[in-house]
Structures are given as structure tokens and as C-alpha cells.
Specification:
35% helix; 482 residues; 3 domains; globular; Rossmann fold; 18 helices; 6-stranded mixed beta sheet; Protein-Tyrosine Phosphatase, Chain A; 6-stranded parallel beta sheet
Length: 482
């Protein structure tokens, strides 16, 4: 049964609409929030940034956090209190949500929790930090999404735009919340933003000038009711684009090759030249056909990122750059100078003719498979973590001719083992240090020890970066004889 407070709030909102004072749905969020009651759910990076920005702009802010106060950063809490932000820890109170003018949720907050559903039923707008920030943006947004490769393409495109001489903000899901751009009072020419499906789920008006969709493969099936719902979330990045925008699509992706957004100009890329493609590769030469019909070519001999999937990532970034009419010189400089991001196919050392690679960001089956297939030499694979609902069979089928042995960690270890039986030898490890030691013992001269977990990290670590750091430290300890 719906909470009476939500019903009363719903009636109050309808009355205020008739009086012409405006409801939350009509509020130009991001422009004038003074005096508005706002509940921010979740005190992660984006939630805390949103709470601070709202408070500094005169909103009456309450943060609702599932964790107890003692589990939260004391310095952050002190800063929020200084801004007048109220904290409700240890759970989400329905009565607080029901008296809100609007609610801002962090990406990890499930949309189907009961207090949130009741608030939405009462007509209280629920948006994410990305949507909040985008409503205050006055510069073009270049948005990147996809199951895999988002961070690499975001960083690549950011580097490309900067090398062209433009002041560029790079953020979003890659690290710095978009709302921080507004908070800092910066004036950039472009904002390059990594966008997750969770962020798109709460984006109503978000309309990037360039929207890149790299791929869609099964992921986050522990959050979405089915794969189709996840797919629709990703495709929604194009929903509000107009005819002056650009959509960049991976034409080698089965779903995307048959999809055409209704509004923007569409630029497609793939590994081979085909009709209607604007980017392809021939003999390590990247060929580009720009939206205005200009042709250009770029030698990939100095491109440092391994794997065919990273060439695809490069094509996406370069196509976005050509849509902005960035000069070929800046593109060539970026191709030659760009290096892998931390924990994404990052070299982690070499010991006794065995190479170690950190791809802790490979948090799903498809990304782990792409990592394995990037190497010509045999791989000893470290995998496991928290299960995300996906089937591990595609990883086993695609990697069995490349993987010498798998070393399994974390909660999902037994599930992965069930798929590996009879296909790839495996053993279990207690922790990362043990996994690195066992992998080294199983490897032969010239092999690669690869951390590509195919799972999230939250069973053993705070995030994928923490997991990657622990892996690299374990490699260092091995080399040092510890």
C-alpha cells in the first residue's frame, strides 16, 4: 500500500501545478534549484558531488545512504554538514523521499526499491547526476557508452580533442562526475563523458552532440530483468539527439549493424571495408571517410594498444573527431602517443620470460574473452569475483585454444569451474597473491599471466582498481622473492 505521505505529496504537487508555481517535472533542474527539497540517494562519487553542488546552489538537501554513518568518510560528512546537507544513514526513509521536490540517485542504486517506486508513482521526478549536470551544460557533450571499451574510448577521444587545441573536460563514469564541471566553474570547448547504462536509465533529456555506442553484449544481468532491457538502456543514448547530432556505431556488432537512430547522422565503423562504413582497416592502415566526404588515412604502426578490439575503439574515437572536423595532424599525434589506461590491458611486469598483464577492468565475459584473444602466446588466466548473471560458456568456447590454465578466485570461482570442466584445466586460489603464485608456476617460457576476471570485484575488493593494484603488488612481490 502506498505511503499516505506520498499520496499527500502527490495531491500537493497537482495543486501547485494548477496554481502555476510549477511541479518537479517542470522544474528546470540545473538552472534554479534554490529552496527545492532534494533527496540524494547514495553517497558515492557522483552522489556526493551532486549533493555539494545542489547545496551550494541553495537547495535543501538530504542524503539518504544505506550504509551506517560510521562506515562513511568522516571528512566528506564534515564537508557536507558544513554546507547544510542532512544525512540519513542506515537505510532509505520513505517519508523523506515522499516530501522531495525531486530525487537524485547514484548509478548503483536499484530503481526498483520500494520507497523509490512509491515516490515515482506520486509524481516525484527521479533523475541521476548525469541528467542533473547535463541540464546546466552550455557546451557540446561527446558521450561514450557500450558494454566494453568505454573508458578507453573516452580517454582516447579526450586526448584527441585536446591535441586539436580545444579545452576539454573528460569525466563521467570514467572518474570525475559531470556535475564537477559545473561546480568548478570551468569553461571548456567540449565535454567528453563516459556513460553507463545505469546513468542512461535516469536520463530524461540528456542529448549529446556526438553519441558513441561501441558494442552490446550480456552484462549486468543481475540488475536488469533480461538482456533486452539492458540492450534498450544502451540504445537510449540516441533518444534525444536531433538532426545536427552524430551517432557513431560499431558495424561489426550484430545488434548495432541493424540499428539506425532516428535523428542524428550515423557514422559506422568495422574492421573491413563495406558499404555505408565510414572507418575500416586495410593492412594496418586506418581509412576514414568523414561526414562531408573527405578521405584520410592513418598508419597504425605506432598505435600501442594491443588487440583488434582496441583498433575498433580507435576507429570510434577518430570518427567522432572527424565529425568535429579535427585536423588529421591531431589525429595522427593521438594515435602515436596514446597509452593504455590503468587496469585495462596494462603491462604489469615481466619475470623469467613470463609477462604479466592487468585487465582488472574486464568485468564481464565478453571483455575477458577480448583480452585473452589479444595475445598470440599461451595465457594463464586469473578469473573470478562476484557473479553478474552471465553465462561463462562463450569465454570457455572462445578461449580454450589460447588458455593453458585458469586460476580461479572469489565467489564466482565454482561457477566458472563448472563451465571449464573438460575444456580448460583450472585450480582455485585463496587470494590474489596465491593466484599470481599459482599462475606463475603453471606458466611456461613466453606465456602471459593475465588478470581478466569476467566478474565484478565487490566480493573481495572495493572496486576493479583496488583489485588491479593488489594484482600488480602481488607481481612485484613475486619478482622480489616475497
Amino acid at each position: 500500500m502506498q505511503d499516505p505521505g506520498c499520496r499527500m505529496q502527490d495531491e500537493k504537487r497537482r495543486n501547485s501545478h494548477h496554481e502555476g508555481s510549477g511541479t518537479g517535472r517542470r522544474l528546470e533542474i540545473g538552472m534554479d534549484v534554490k529552496g527545492k527539497k532534494v533527496t540524494v540517494i547514495g553517497l558515492g562519487k557522483s552522489g556526493s558531488s551532486a549533493a555539494k553542488w545542489l547545496a551550494r546552489h541553495g537547495a535543501d538537501v538530504t542524503v539518504s545512504e544505506i550504509k551506517e554513518a560510521g562506515e562513511l568518510d568522516s571528512n566528506l560528512l564534515r564537508e557536507l554538514r558544513g554546507l547544510g546537507v542532512k544525512l540519513e544513514a542506515g537505510g532509505h526513509r520513505r517519508e523523506t523521499l515522499c516530501i522531495s521536490d525531486f530525487i537524485v540517485i547514484s548509478p548503483g542504486v536499484p530503481l526498483d526499491m520500494t520507497p523509490l517506486l512509491e515516490a515515482r508513482k506520486a509524481g516525484i521526478p527521479v533523475i541521476g547526476e548525469l541528467e542533473l549536470a547535463s541540464r546546466g551544460m552550455d557546451i557540446p557533450i561527446l558521450a561514450v557508452t557500450g558494454t566494453n571499451g568505454k573508458s578507453t574510448v573516452t580517454a582516447l577521444l579526450g586526448a584527441l580533442v585536446r591535441n586539436a587545441g580545444y579545452e576539454t573536460f573528460v569525466g563521467g563514469n570514467i572518474g570525475t562526475p559531470l556535475i564537477d564541471y559545473l561546480a568548478e566553474g570551468r569553461k571548456a570547448d567540449y565535454a567528453v563523458v563516459e556513460v553507463s547504462s545505469f546513468q542512461l536509465d535516469t536520463a530524461e533529456r540528456f542529448s549529446p552532440h556526438v553519441a558513441i555506442l561501441l558494442n552490446i553484449t550480456p552484462d549486468h544481468l543481475d540488475r536488469y530483468p533480461d538482456y533486452e532491457a539492458y540492450e534498450e538502456s544502451k540504445l537510449s543514448i540516441f533518444r534525444n539527439q536531433g538532426k545536427n547530432g552524430f551517432a557513431v556505431l560499431n558495424d561489426d556488432d550484430t545488434r548495432l549493424s541493424s540499428f539506425t537512430p532516428g535523428g542524428p547522422a550515423v557514422l559506422r565503423y568495422g574492421m573491413k571495408k563495406r558499404e555505408n562504413r565510414h572507418a575500416w582497416v586495410e593492412d594496418r592502415i586506418l581509412r576514414i571517410l568523414s561526414p562531408d566526404g573527405r578521405e584520410s588515412s592513418f598508419d597504425l604502426k605506432d598505435f600501442a594498444l594491443p588487440g583488434a578490439h582496441n583498433i575498433g575503439n580507435l576507429m570510434a574515437a577518430v570518427l567522432a573527431g572527424t565529425a568535429l572536423k579535427i585536423a588529421p595532424k591531431a589525429i595522427a599525434e593521438t594515435i602515436a602517443s596514446f597509452r593504455a589506461l590503468p587496469h585495462r590491458m596494462e603491462p604489469a611486469g615481466r619475470f623469467r620470460e613470463i609477462s604479466f598483464y592487468d585487465d582488472s577492468k574486464a568485468t564481464n565475459v565478453d571483455s575477458a574473452l577480448r583480452a585473452v584473444l589479444s595475445f598470440k602466446n599461451p595465457v594463464v588466466l586469473i578469473a573470478g569475483g562476484r557473479h553478474k548473471g552471465a553465462d561463462y560458456e562463450p569465454l570457455v568456447k572462445g578461449a580454450k585454444d589460447r588458455v593453458r590454465k585458469a586460476v580461479l578466485i572469489g565467489e564466482a570461482g565454482p561457477l566458472i569451474a563448472d563451465s571449464l570442466k573438460g575444456e580448460i584445466p583450472f585450480e582455485f586460489a585463496r587470494d590474489m597473491k596465491d593466484a599470481v603464485a599459482r599462475s606463475f608456476a603453471a606458466a611456461k617460457t613466453g606465456d602471459v599471466v593475465l588478470l581478466a576476471p569476467a566478474c565484478s570485484s565487490f566480493d573481495m575488493y572495493t572496486d576493479y582498481a583496488h583489485r588491479g593494484r593488489v594484482f600488480k603488488q602481488a607481481v612485484e612481490d613475486l619478482r622480489g622473492g616475497k
